[in-house]
Design a protein that fits this description.
10-stranded mixed β-sheet, 314 residues, alpha/beta, Spore Coat Polysaccharide Biosynthesis Protein SpsA, Chain A, 2 domains, single chain
Length: 314
Amino acid sequence: MSDSNPLVSYVVATYNRSSELERAIKSILKQRYENFEIIVISNSTSGPEEKFVKGGEFDLEKVRYIHKPVRMGVINARNLGYQLADGDYIVTLDDDAILSDPQLIADIVNDFEQDDDLGIAALHVVNAKTFETEFPLPVSDLEKKVPFFRAQMRPPNDHPESPSNTTLFTGCGNIIRKELFENVGYYPDLFDYGTEELDLCLRSIDFGYDIRYYPNHVVTHFEDPKGRFTDKKVLQENFTNRIALAIRNLPARLILLSLFVWTGQLLYRSQFDIQLLMSSVFELISNLPKLIRQRNPVDEKTIKLVNSMGGRAY
């Protein structure tokens, strides 16, 4: 248990979403928890620098703005923010999302302070336009037809009414104990988009941390389309990153199973686009030497724990 008034670091990665970023930061500034810093990692080619320079709206002692002219991607941008953070707890918030309740951070920091095993707090993410839940993830049509293809690790019963331990969080909104990164590492630098949370979850659970889902603590996601990958690119990233996750973290017997499952996923969702599959495989092969060097399989007990909680590691 640490200081009774620990520092909280907010990390927001942004790319060409000036007005959305402004809305996100204003929601942070409305939080009642007062001991905090905000770190903005920007790859933007236009705006929002004017809001952070001397005399700008966010020219505040507690706000740090770091601009990187070469686009890093959200994963590497967040990793940089985590490394720069001085807080005991790190809040990740998408630049097109807001914290809906001013008491949210204070409530969850209190839980962290009372429970040294709590490593990650997963927040409930709701779409601002449809009011539908984005996290926990809804079951897809494919998963309804073929339960074996259930693609993600989910909180127990998908939508519990009170906080409960789980095996997954989403990058859109979460809170992570800073020392967790020191113990299990950051997001994989080979991943461009997606699956980085799953990778971190496996390593965190393997180390002994709990991941807790908070259904009543909501992040509202406006899901701005700017800066997002195409559907085809997302399919490719899901495939290569899930196999990469298996090579990095899973027992050998589950690597082939992951390859089978995610090949089926990609072919089904791409309407059997063989060219996309082959380009994805070639990308994976090009990264194979580094993935093998990074390989550090989790314990079989971790796999059993994930399965017992209704999740799936492969």
